[in-house]
Description:
This protein is of the alpha/beta class. It contains 16 helices and 9 strands. The strands form 2 sheets. A 6-stranded mixed sheet has the order 1-2-3-5-7-9, with helices on both faces. The protein has a 3-stranded parallel sheet with strand order 4-6-8. A hairpin with a 4-residue loop joins strand 1 (about 10-15) and strand 2 (about 20-25). Helix 3 (about 85-100) packs antiparallel against helix 14 (about 285-300) and helix 10 packs across helix 11. Residues about 1-5 have low confidence and may be disordered.
Amino acid sequence: MKTDDPVNDTVLFAADGPTAVITLNRPKALNALTHPMVLRISEALTAWAGDPAVTRVLIRGAGERGLCAGGDIRAIHDDAKAAGSASADFWRDEYRLNALIARYPKPYVALMDGIVMGGGVGVSAHGSVRIVTERSRVAMPETGIGFVPDVGGTHLLGRAPGQLGTHLALTGAAVGAADALLCDLADHFVPSDRLAELTAELLAGAPLREALARHTGRPAPGELAERRGWIDRCYRADTVEEIVERLFGEGDPAAKEAAETILAKSPTSLKVTLAAVRRARELGPLERVLVQEYRVSCNALRSPDLVEGIRAQVIDKDRAPRWSPATLPEVTGDDVARFFAPLGEGRELDL
């Protein structure tokens, strides 16, 4: 594998020793993923899987702000408005990459430092060695843009203890290191000022377990553990409406804040997300969940809330989306079911 690519530097590769390195290199865009980046990462991982000189892979983000903030949602906005196929093509390859990472035959070390959201979760949290720092902010915030957690996010959140994953899926809340560990979105905590030394040791060929033991520590306490009681009570309800009602009824300021956060999201996205997370729990392997997510994502392209949500949050930045339907009771069971409908012959995700 070449160590550089003069044609495309949005993702950099190095494999000069036992540790191959992927560096997402769009720091001004918080290392957001593009379709070409996804394809090149998949190609590199496939090559390294069969290379006996490579014993493990490490992925990191350029700059100080984060590993990856997700995909290029401006491009998704434009594609959805134009009724195009670029987003579906991108997701097909992105979800295949997520599956490849999950079943990778060698240790896959993800440095989840800083912002790790959406597609950033997809290229990290399915790995076998997931490292967070005190700067980590991990989230699946899709309901805020009229979308639904994808890249295997419903699989990850569905497997979180109790109802923690449902809470994160509906609110889109970002969690720090301790809560990421609690929710099984990460495995190890390493202070950010020790990442460089850890990386250097891995590049020099140090045994992975020994290197981790030298640098891991304990993060500052999170918030979810002490909120677990009302989270589990409220989010086990059958509907989003009942979840919100229970949250308001808790008498806890944090629960009230969660309810208000949920009510600001797309009503359709909320109901589809709740259904998707609960279905994911029953589907089993990640690959089956990704097939479901691909259906939901492609069907979301025809939903007015996706275009409107991105407009309000990213394009115009007025933070005042006009959801359609505007309220939870207006979203029917048939509306939700349409997101899970088969795409038709030749259009389904093949893993």
